[in-house]
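Supplementary Methods, section 5.1.

A reviewer requested that the exact input to the structure prediction be made available. We therefore reproduce it here, unchanged from the version used in the analyses.
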Amino acid sequence: MLIALVVRLSSLITIFLKGLRARDTTLRFDFGKRDSLLRDLADDMNAIAAIYHENNSQLETSKLYYDRILKIMTHEMRNYVAPVISITSDVVSHPDRYSSPESLRDVISLIHSQGDGIRRFLDSYYRLTHLPRLRLESVTAAAFASRLLPLVSADIQARGLPPSVLSFEVPQDMTMTFDVSLMTQVMLNLIRNALDAVTSVSDPSVVVKFTTSDSCPFITVTDNGIGIPQSSLDNLFQPFFTSKQDGCGVGLTLSRQIVRRHYGDLTLLHAARPTTFAISLPSLLHI
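The structure derived from this sequence is encoded token-by-token as follows.
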């Protein structure tokens, strides 16, 4: 009896290990209710298999994420470098065409412009991949909102919008714990995106609301702008995706990374008008 049990356990463990090696996501074990020890062993094996497959899934997702970044970087770098190679090759082949100061100025201006484009693109990539260590502190929602308002005043004015376009709904007794500098970046990005969305509508409005849900801080940014087209939804949080002519496409990606570093999340609650982005945070972060 004991020998048969050992042989069976050995066989099952062999199947278990082969299943992990083959990445078999359907692998499950059930010894029934005959023996509590065997039932506990089955539960542990199933838990190990679930963790293993979840980690593999995360690795594959990360690989796809960085493959996408590499593909975009390669494409962008080629776009920046190609005109420089073309013009400098022409200068080498036909120097007489560039003997005047005006011609040389045009060449240098093009090279400078493309080089600056490369710098700005690499700066965006650096911000995306080099988040600083969190410096957590407690702050009231009212104090945080007061910090944001003067920082976006120039953005409101630059877009020709009235000061009343932006409003805050803030409970006086609400306290949050996060990296104030990083979370300020997140909020500024969301508010500026919302301001862009309402520049062409009548009676523009952007509302930033602070609430709690199950004792967890919850911040929403809602605008009555043009909404987000269906074609953009799948790529909204992808790195370097942008619908703006002068955008670099890292704002929402970076913002979500920052919020997730706080064990929260940044999501799009509603795409059509009114458009709402939401930040959910845990109830407590240890300082």
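The domain at 136-280 is CATH 3.30.565.10 (Heat Shock Protein 90). These observations are discussed further in the main text.
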